[in-house]
Design goal:
single chain, globular, mainly alpha
Length: 140
Amino acid sequence: MRMQRPVYRITAQRPGSDLAAETAAALAAASLIFKKDNPSYAAKCLKHAKELYNFADKYRGVYSNSIPDAAIYYKSWSGYNDELAWGAVWLYRATQNKMYLNKAEQLSNSLGSPEELSWDNKGSGVQVLLAAITGKQVYK
C-alpha cells in the first residue's frame, strides 16, 4: 500500500497513559512467553514494560487528546485508568512485585462493573486477572 503514514508520539507534555500502559501490558505478557526460551529477550521486554508503565503513571493523560488525529478512529472513551490497571496487573504477573498488584487493585476500584473487554476498555480483563491472582470475591 503506497500512502503517506504520519508518525506520532506521546511525550511528557503530550501524554498518553492509555497507550503507554497498554504497551507495557503487552511487553510484560511477552516477557512471560519468552522467559524460558529466550530469557535475554524476555528481560528486555520486561525492562521496557516497566519504563513505559512508569511513564504512563507519571505523565497522565489520554492519548487521543495528545494525538487529535487518533481521535478520528480510536478515541479513548474510557480514559486511562483501565489501561493503567491492565499494565499493573500484567507487570505483577511478570515480576511478582506487590507494588504492581496494589496499584492494579487500587485502580480497579475506579472501573465500576465493566461488561466487555475491548480495545478501549480493559476493565473486565483486569477483574478476571485479579480474581485469578487474589481469589477475592469482589473481582468475580
